[in-house]
Description:
Leucine-rich repeat, LRR (right-handed beta-alpha superhelix), single chain
Amino acid sequence: MAFYSNHFRNNFIFILIITLQSDEILGYPAEAFANANTDSIESPCVETSLHTVLCSGLRSPAALTNAALTARHLTVTNSSLVALSGEHLLPLTQLLALTITHSRVVLSDLVWPARLGLEELVLERCWSNSPDTNNSNGAVNNKLQKYLQIPPKVWSALTSLKTLKIVECSIKVDDEPGGDGAVGFGLLPPSTFLSIEGGEYECHSIQVYLLTLVESGRAAVSENTSCFILEDISKFNSYYTFNKKPLLDVLKLRKSVERCPSACSCELLGFRSLDRPLLSVDCRGAGLTTLPPAIPPLASSLIMSDNNLTNIDAVFSNPDYSRLAKCDFSNNAISSINGAALLNYFTSREHDVYFDLRNNKLSQFPVWELTSFYNKGHRSGEKHLPAFDLSGNPWDCEDCSFIPYFKSFVYDNMFHIPDHLRVRCDDTGALRPILYVDFEAQCYPKQSPLMAIDVVNIFMALVLLATIANFAHNYYQYRRYGKLPWVVRHCKRC
């Protein structure tokens, strides 16, 4: 009979494992039960040492109630805990520490009661969702990824909880604000220490509060914890996304956005690299007459169009502006640019920059400083040189000490001046482009064959020749005929 009993039991286990191959049964992979043995089916929880219990293969959180009544330290593995709440743990009156590993955990929205004496909660390699297997064309579908959905408000009343540790999980946090305005893990009791080790964390702007918890000593996040996003990522944008970037670095950059000027809007869009974020500062149409004294220090794009700026010298001297890759100053009243400061700004940078200076009041441009800079760049084979848009300005085409050199600068660097065919001598666009105007006739007119000084010199030469000829004639008359010159014969005093 024992043989038939064991044979029947093993066959039942085999059929059960085959049945669990589908995720629709329990909502988590069958491999969670792959290592389940006959003992775990008969008794899912075993006491490994005094007051320490290990449970494996649980199919619901209700199984905890009767299986681990004496546990102070309870570990649950390879299980499905759907709609887990504090009520399931209340019968475990001695429970101090709960560790859940390699399991599907779906937390209910019910707040865990304060009378629950739990001091430590560890979630390791857990998940909540049933991943969407429908991938879209040409995109990285992060919905295939398992993640652990956490509503921190369920622990807001659990004042006994000293440590919440989340290890190697992809965390998606419900950021619904509480009554005091706190969000996410900020709702944890002040005495609870949050530890996130490895894994990933869904990143969006509201989660800067997590960095505040770290800085205040209420939380610790390991350096190998990265960001992830659930949206589909196109192949083109995957290079610039937050996906797989270090969580703390992303949060620090998001916090830097708080330095955004009050008249502007700032947005962190992604990354070229960790030290070159795509961070935009948009101050268009804000009525500003000067540049803001402070912006996020890693800002890459500054939009100051449609304001009343008259100069942009602060860009070249303020460290907050040192990493800009795009500067839009179009439609302002900028009348001059400090050439020496501009040149120093370019030479101190490691990457190129674009200046949009269209529709301002510029009549002069630092062509001498920039010509030497561009020539040096061309000789060294540098491809990424600064670029300008310069149309719509009243360039001084009457100044012959400027305009020929400006025309040469535009011509020689037209690949770095996208609107070079629209750079004209006025700001109305009525005149021809500067590249097509012949300034030689204006600045170097053709001269007449004889200058005034030449006429004077010729006259003096003729007088000298006449004098010499007269002297020779008088000398000849005197020697041959003894006649004195006419002047001597008629001068009474000679």
